[in-house]
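Predict the 3D structure for this chain.
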Amino acid sequence: MPRPEKWTADDIPDLTGKVVVVTGGNSGIGFGAVKAVARKGAETVLACRSPERGQAALDTLRQEIPDAKAELMALDLASLASVERFATEFAERYQRLDVLANNAGIMVIPYGKTEDGFERQVGTNHLGHFALTGRLLDVLLATPGARVVNVSSLAHKRAELDLDNLLYQKGGYGEWPAYGRSKLLNML
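Done. Predicted structure below.
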């Protein structure tokens, strides 16, 4: 059977019994993904930095899709301690993870560091997701057909990968170049 020329959320198969985690699931692409998989029956975890914005998204989801199986869990990708807490709590609540959608991110912000000392855009957009995926790898590998989806950006095309100054520890920081670098790293 030939593949359709245009794939839409309607083409998502039934996801009943599947567990999906979406980082940054409270807005934008993340919230769109949450709604799409919830409509198909997935049990969905909105992994969000802001409890207030996460709860608002969860409330909206339940208004739009009353039978949605979804919960909010705290996750700040700029904190490896938060990543650890999330992974531990997730493993206590769930025995499977069918899709990990690494979507959350920050964009074009002034220079700053995460609580672990990494440049914020690379630390949040790439290293936080890398650590999260690593911490959830056991449950992913134990789930038949599990997938990890890393959301990137066309901004990666304008990025340079300077391994000697990966986190701008030698200077040269620019908001757009750092964002592009964080998205290029997601593609490696």
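DSSP finds five helices and five strands in the chain.
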